[in-house]
Specification:
Layout (H helix, E strand, L loop, with lengths): L3 E6 L18 H11 L9 E5 L2 H16 L5 E5 L15 H13 L5 H4 L4 H18 L4 E6 L1 H11 L5 H5 L7 E5 L2 E4 L14
Parallel strand pairs: 1-4, 2-3, 2-4
Antiparallel strand pairs: 1-5, 5-6
Helix pairs in contact: 1-2, 5-6
């Protein structure tokens, strides 16, 4: 395998109580983050992009894909439901405090379908995400592969690699647009950590 796996959280999203969470757009700040991501030197030779089917993830990576196409770079793009966020589309819109309490409950009790059974369980989301990552890793050799996705599933994945149980706590330590790197099942750089080792100043 010997692949370099990059995990990129989507940019900041615009809260809209009238549509499902999976259909939310980026805010202006999120769009700026997307354009900043397109400038990251470490991303200019990615071989394979595995992109969540959610709109905000696709909007986040579009400037980078456009930049690479204009530069004549060759790469593969795959859209995947398996790396989408923990499904929270069902149920009524929540105020911020209620939402955060529900998120903490869901991530702290992986087998639970939070919000009175309306959310996907964290265990199910983690399993589909981890399985997809493993399959992609096995199917490639010596490639740089970027997964463009979401905070819950990526933090569950990194939490497992680092044997950390408090997924909600680690989620609060990274943010929209953050990225991390994994090689051969080891975390080279966590989500939100400084990236000087890759020649990047951004976090």
């Amino acid at each position: 395998m010997n692949n370099t796996l990059i995990f990129l959280r989507h940019g900041k999203t615009k809260v809209d109580k009238d549509i499902p969470i999976s259909e939310w757009d980026l805010t202006e700040e999120g769009e700026k983050q997307a354009h900043d991501i397109a400038e990251v030197s470490f991303f200019q030779d990615v071989d394979v992009f595995i992109i969540s089917t959610e709109k905000k993830a696709q909007q986040t990576i579009l400037p980078l894909l456009d930049r690479l196409r204009k530069a004549g770079k060759k790469f593969e793009v795959v859209y995947s439901d398996e790396i989408a966020e923990l499904d929270r589309n069902k149920g009524d819109f929540m105020d911020h405090a209620t939402y955060e309490a529900t998120a903490q409950e869901a991530l702290s009790n992986p087998e639970l379908q939070a919000n009175e059974g309306k959310w996907e369980s964290a265990a199910h989301a983690r399993e589909r995400f981890t399985t997809k990552v493993g399959m992609v890793d096995m199917e490639n050799q010596g490639k740089k592969i970027m997964f463009v996705g979401h905070g819950y599933t990526m933090n569950m994945y990194f939490g497992d690699l680092r044997r950390e149980k408090d997924v909600y706590g680690r989620l609060k330590k990274n943010n929209f647009g953050d990225w991390g790197v994994v090689r051969n099942g080891k975390v080279i750089s966590d989500l939100g950590e400084p990236k000087e080792k890759f020649g990047e100043r951004m976090v």
